[in-house]
Design a protein that fits this description.
Largest sheet: 5 strands, parallel
Structural class: alpha/beta
Distance between the termini: 66 Å
CATH topology of one domain: Heat Shock Protein 90
CATH class of one domain: Alpha Beta
Radius of gyration: 36 Å
Shape: rod-shaped
Number of strands: 14
Number of helices: 9
């Protein structure tokens, strides 16, 4: 059976005092005579030149050299060989500069008058192991960042394709509308098209968003409301959407957008029977525990006795169902027009 041999570690010893350099090599050789090979340099310039010639695995670096001292010595060494671990040597136990170099610069610090062969060997091997672990961690982080980037691209593509498919469905519904002869059937198809376009809008907002999982709440609701008004039968309706700045996730955005679609559609159909102009306002707010959306129009108001718990129209049935999906609370009133207050949990956002 062949005995396994280990290749000696190549160490660059940067020490301007020949006696200290000889002592370090002697202490190490006493314990591991074949474990290390050394190249000795007395200046920083000489050591930097040596780094370009040989593949060293560890640098033992004196802080005070003829051509460089203190933190500058470490910074120049690390900048020239960022992949090689550095162990600091200093003759001053109170040298705070040596401790500062450890903050992201060097792997360890040894006091010359308080070292043994074992402590030097341990520092060299630990420095090399820590540097290897840092390199492995950086490589793993790079792979993770690349995987995250790839997933983001894939998710954007998914949202984009869903949006395009839903837009195609909406176009087909629009074409079908032109083929029906009953105005009521055409109206129903247009309402279905509007709901499909609302679902498409959330995916459009998501693939344009930097987060891919959340959208700006006010901007999203504004885009939904304006889309419904533009595609509706009335063009003289003004729209105001204001509120706090916060984001909502897809679990909230989809039902909230569909709910708003129904509210705006209802206002366009019923709120302004004898007028060509009107105003719709939407206010969205958030506190520590709840979100509140207040929807109002300045039309004729709600029918007397309307009860969301016993809704008879599809629009109001959908609104009630969507509020329930958000674990929310709906209140309705006539206040210079129709008013809907929807309170739902921020935990759903």
């Amino acid at each position: 059976m062949t005995e396994q041999t280990h290749k000696p570690l190549q160490v660059l010893l940067v020490e301007d005092n020949p006696g200290d350099a000889d002592l370090i090599r002697y202490l190490i050789a006493e314990i591991e005579p074949a474990g290390f090979t050394f190249r000795h340099e007395t200046t920083l310039a000489g050591s930097l030149a040596a780094l370009s010639l040989e593949p060293f695995e560890v640098v033992l670096l004196d802080l005070t050299l003829p051509d460089s001292t203190g933190l500058e010595t470490v910074e120049r060494m690390v900048a020239s060989a960022p992949g090689i671990p550095v162990v600091i040597l200093t003759g001053n136990p109170d040298d705070m500069m040596a401790l500062q170099t450890l903050r992201g610069k060097a792997q360890d610090c040894l006091i010359k008058g308080d070292v043994s062969g074992r402590s030097i060997i341990r520092a060299i091997r630990y420095a090399r192991e820590r540097k290897n672990l840092q390199v492995e961690l950086e490589e793993a982080n790079d792979r993770l960042r690349q995987a995250l980037h790839d997933n983001e691209i894939l998710l954007k593509e998914i949202h984009h394709r869903i949006k395009n498919n839903l837009s195609l469905v909406a176009s087909l519904l629009n074409l079908q509308t032109d083929l029906v002869h009953d105005p009521r059937d055409g109206e129903l198809l247009q309402e279905a098209r509007s709901r499909v376009m609302t679902m498409a809008r959330i995916h459009e907002n998501l693939y344009r968003s930097s987060s891919l999982t959340e959208v700006d709440a006010v901007e999203y609701l504004r885009s939904i409301a304006c889309q419904v008004v533009r595609s509706g039968p009335r063009q003289g309706i003004d729209m105001v959407v204001i509120g706090d700045e916060f984001s909502i996730g897809t679990q909230t955005a989809v039902p909230l957008g569909l709910m708003l679609n129904e509210l705006v559609t209802n206002s366009l159909k019923h709120a302004f029977p004898d007028r060509s102009t009107g105003l719709i306002t939407i206010h969205l707010s958030r506190d520590k525990s709840d979100c509140v959306m207040i929807y109002r129009d300045n039309g004729v108001g709600l029918p007397v006795g309307v009860d969301p718990a016993h809704a008879e129209t599809l629009g109001l049935m959908l609104i009630t169902s969507l509020v329930h999906q958000l674990s929310g609370i709906l209140t309705m009133a006539t206040d210079d027009g129709a008013r809907f207050d929807i309170r739902f949990s921020v935990g759903q956002a």
